[in-house]
Amino acid sequence: MKKKLTLGLFGFGCVGQGLYRVLQETKGLQTEIRRICILNPEKSRSLPAELFTTSREALLDDPEIDVIVELINDPDKALDIVRGAVNRGKDVVTANKRMLAEHLDEILALQKATGRSILYEAAVCGSIPIIRNLEEYYDNDSLSRIEGIFNGSTNYILTRIDEERLSFDEALKAAQDLGFAELDPSLDVEGFDPTFKLSILIAHAFGKRIPPEDILRIGIGKLSPSDLSYARKNNLKIKLVAGAYSTGETITALVAPKFVRDNHALFPIRNEFNAVVVEGSFAEEQLFVGKGAGGNPTGAAVLSDIAALRYGYRYEYRKWQENTKDVSSEPIIEVSVGFENPNLVSFEDFIAFYGGERVGKMNRMWGSVSWQTLRLWAETNGISVVLSPEALPAVRTRLTIAEQALV
Ligand code: HSE
User: Fold this and answer.
1) Parent domain of 279
2) Global pTM?
3) What is the pLDDT of residues 187-203, one digit of tens each?
């Protein structure tokens, strides 16, 4: 049965204010924000002062509040708030992807132990309802791939550099001014943020626990002007692609810049838009697109979770398997690698060598490398790695080759 909900809100930044706005404009929801807990009482606010408090207990101990909405930045404090809320019999809506990705086992255990619901659609790809779809629609389909653009800021930066020739710093500043970037923008630029989101989606899509540190991560910070001009000359786009590819047993999971061709689903995804490609054995390939960052789109996802709580909605984690990691480090990945110093990259690193070129001071090589080499290059300064358009799903390509061999 639908019920009226009273909310306690932690955080009144970009998303908190977005939620407030969308709540104001949503008629008939029967939901009110009773108190807002903030960090800095000195900041001038657009709402009456009595709505705000700096006391966490003022919300957690208020028996009138039945849902805690957690929209703060600090993942440790966020986890503490979630624990405090469910242990006091309150449901939770949170957008804290880092907290969720790093503590997903505890988040599941807390829900099981307390019977409360913790919903977090807004934590992954902003306004795209991907978690709810994985939970409800794809719960019986065995998925082979989940791949996409999971970070609005880097997609915005890459778009503006490509289309308007902005410098990296100008584009990053614009993403910050629009409220897309994290407080620490290196979480976006270095690809941490999409690894958090990918880790969460892997749990819902494949039922496996792959913590963010097990996901191979290459950000956009080391991209070179030569990568960008190569893309332009060849009608390619560079996208920061997050992907998880399943064999049914193991998962290959990585976040890395990739050259995409104009026939790829991610090619037209511009600015702060995110996209998720889901590939299942029955439904085959499907594409979800929507704004992945910004106060209103993310606030709308929070609102949707709040509305779902009125019906007692909870995630079932139907595919969840205890104690599995099953991350694969076998794949051979096709890449373009750019470097100035030839000592950093050698022919021996390539499993198959396809070719090379020199643009100004930059050397570029194309070829296939092992997972271990890719991990090493990801951590080496002076090397920029971009996955080739054919790079993945490697798992599927290898299966195809094996199948061909059998015929
Ligand atoms: N900094 C994040 C992004 C915000 O740019 O996608 C939304 O999670």
Assistant:
1) 140-291
2) 0.94
3) 999 999 999 999 999 99
